[in-house]
Amino acid sequence: MSLRNTENSIVLGRPSAGTDGDIRIIMLPGKIKTAISGLGIFDPDKNPTQRIGLQPDIRLDPTIEGIMEGRDEYIERAVELIKGGY
User: Fold this and answer.
1) Contact present, 77 and 60 (Cβ < 8 Å)
2) Tens digits of per-residue pLDDT, 77-86?
């Protein structure tokens, strides 16, 4: 989320899991234990992220070929974007 506050930034990658915020354990009568999240987490545009995740500007999933070849496809794509002026 901090990267989005930077001018001319691009977030490249995969969406996050959307599991943010704190966890509070509550004991209920009958020794029943439950948990809640008591914080709202929002991206810089004030959109919620909980159960949604952070969405990249450009989605990129590593390929089996790239992994087998030992390549870092995130860095490769980032270099392409920088050279191309995105």
Assistant:
1) yes
2) 999 999 986 5
